[in-house]
Hints:
The protein is 33% helix and 23% strand. By secondary structure, it is an alpha+beta fold.
Amino acid sequence: MIAALIFLIGCSxxxxxxxxxxxxxVYKEEKLYVQLIKSAKKEIPLLNDEHGQNLFKVPSYIDSAxxxxxxxxxxxxxxxxxxxxxxxxxxxxxxxxxxxxxSYIKGxxxxxxxRLPAVPTIIYTVRxxxxxxxxxxxxxxxxxxxxxxFVLTAGTVxxxxxxxDNMYWFGDQNQ
Length: 175
């Protein structure tokens, strides 16, 4: 019985990821997505955290980083989530994903990490494979897939489909 339950949960999550990937393929053809990614590649590398450190190539423990092509829009497509995928130094056992919030304001995309008071900064960590003595970093593809599934299953979401919890991610149930 437990094995069947695990299979069903895994199947549901797999369907969620597949559903989002199909939706992303459609988004990539839209002008709004193209504008979003262009703005993100220009603006996100300039973002600083609350301590004034650059988010994109921050601390010495980040070996490599990239902006993912995955996007999660709210229902009105005036807010979104983007990921900065970060592979950490081989001394650490966790890679991480910064979840960036974007808002479409007056025809331009603006990005931030600290969305308080509604939604806090989110750093999603992903354990590396291999032994603790020789951890093997996650590929950017693996980091992206794990972060996508995290967003698709966080908050109060349905078992199937690829809608995200707007209240959880954007702090506004109407958006």
